[in-house]
Amino acid sequence: MTRTAEQAKGRAGRLARLMPSGPSTAARTPFVLLVVLLLAGGLISLLLLNSALNEGSFRLSKLKRETTELTDEQQALQRDVDSYSEPDALERRARELGMVPGGSPAFLNPDGTVSGVPERATAQPSTPTALPAPEASAPVPTGQPSPPGPTSPSASPAPSDSPVTPSTAATTPAPTTTGR
């Protein structure tokens, strides 16, 4: 064991000779400052990154909420368009405007001849069918008479020169013809 102790003492002695005064604090200061600056820079970078991610998350949730609201609005508008585009609704509104179904059409062939005999459109009385109004009217209390006049602002009386009145307006389908 004496030999290892002498060897350790010899190594320590050699190191002591290489650094006669020991590690100086002036030599350690730049290294310590570098490590502290690196740690502080990393911490500040993490805080800035976290803030940016949170801001993006809030913006994403806001955009998702707006997308949901706009999708609901688009679906409601599409339902309205679909209800106004139904054949019964189109015919009812056309009759309210005084329009009548067309007669038999005539077709012009590519060679210039006319096939079919055109007929003038005439108003045909038809049987009324009950259709629900697009707007819901307010319920009338039981035992009281209903108010006079139209129940919705969009309902208008038929023109006086029109042979079709609102009570006789029907939802009969227009005659169909097969075309070539």
Automatic annotation (TrEMBL):
Start and end residues of each stretch annotated as Disordered: 71-180
Domain of life: Bacteria
Name this polypeptide is given: Septum formation initiator
Record key words, sorted: Membrane, Transmembrane, Transmembrane helix
InterPro entries: FtsL/DivIC (IPR007060)
Organism name: Streptomyces pratensis (strain ATCC 33331 / IAF-45CD)
Ranges annotated as biased composition (Pro residues): 142-151
Compositional bias segments (type: Low complexity): 152-180
Membrane-traversing stretches: 31-53
